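forwarding from the other thread:

> can someone predict this with glutamic acid?

sure thing
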Amino acid sequence: METRMRFAPSPTGALHIGGGHTALFNWLWARHTGGKFVLRIEDTDRERSTQEYEDTIMSGMKWLGLDWDEGPDVGGDYGPYRQSQRLPLYRQCAEKLAAEGQAYREGDAIVFKVLPGVELSFDDVVYSRVETMSDGLKGREPGELKDIVLIKSDGMPTYNYAVVVDDHFMEITHVIRGEDHISNTPKQLLLYKAFGWQPPLFAHLPMILGKDKKKLSKRHGATSVYEFRDMGYMPDSVFNFLALLGWSAGQDKEIFDRQEAASLFELSRVTRKAAVFDPDKLNFINQEHLRRMEPMTRLALIKPFWREMGLPVEEHKDEYLAAALTLMGGRGQTARELAAFSDYYVSFEPVKTRWNAGEVAEELLAGLREFFPVLLAEPHWTAEKLETRARTWVEEKGVKMKDYAMTLRLTLTGMKVSPGVFEVAALLGREEVRQRLDFYGLT
Ligand code: GLU
């Protein structure tokens, strides 16, 4: 039997970390089992649902690399894929329950009658046996259960009802969603039973907490998927990071791509222990992905950040800029950070704002002014030759390489930490190095 999973967002906000996490686990299980991943828009809250939110949710999913097989934009055999376009179906099914005496009318609303003594516990793929009294069912009197509104007096279905009708008619086999929906599940199961429908399997995903062990919220910083993009995280790393919230790939495997994750993923290995959103972990994962990127892909990622910093990216050849980023050798945890750490390859201007040669000790100046012309005269402008020339010279003079190399580093980069300074000099080229040294009066 083909497996069918769905992600069912309400278009009342951007795609948040929690929603992205749910979508991703559905996607993983669909891809792992060779099944279908369905996108269904739950837009029955007409006041708060907007087309814009629907669009941002979809583009957020695309950014994460979560493609769907059926949905409002791509269609499919089980449409329509927006709840607002399925109202006749909800009415028809509710009328059926009313005709059977399982539901009753209350004004324009249709309400499902919950009988005393009904079974409310269920088996969850992640949480095992859930012996819970569904909160929303508890009535005012002890032992009394509240009935379930199916269709409200404005003609709109309630969430708990529409979700059952849709999951049934869309032939969803696994409902994978956040644990905040656990208490809704017994209600939904009562409705499956009333209709005589086979319910899907339920797998509730652990809650995501901030480092302070409180439910993840705005207070913890960025929450929407796009905020992570703007901070310089790559979709591959956010994907990788989210996949590790509540699941592990085993064998200490922490860095993987989508295909690897899909092939390793097991729904039964999702833990119910709340997952902690650790920004340091995200940084680490992002840095690893940044390090492993193809040079030209990395360049395409960094360019917009350089441009945003006002750097003249178009003045350089792509090969040069890509080589500069490769030379950075894993420095920078985000694209934004890498762009900032490597600005001196694109322009000398930021260097001038960071370093002032007035800081050079007086007694060193004469030596530097003797040393740099010798370096600039090196006929073979390679890192190796430059280093050999520098070493020979400092040894002859009996001075410390450290002082000379650090001044060169500051002059070329404006920073105390950088890749090997002779490699930086080699890449910048003789003319550029000369100009920078001239500017500081060191030649
Ligand atoms: N529209 C619901 C939500 O956004 C879907 C819940 C479910 O997956 O059943 O939370």
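Residues 8-10, 42, 163, 177, 181 surround glutamic acid (CB under 6 Å). thats all i got for now
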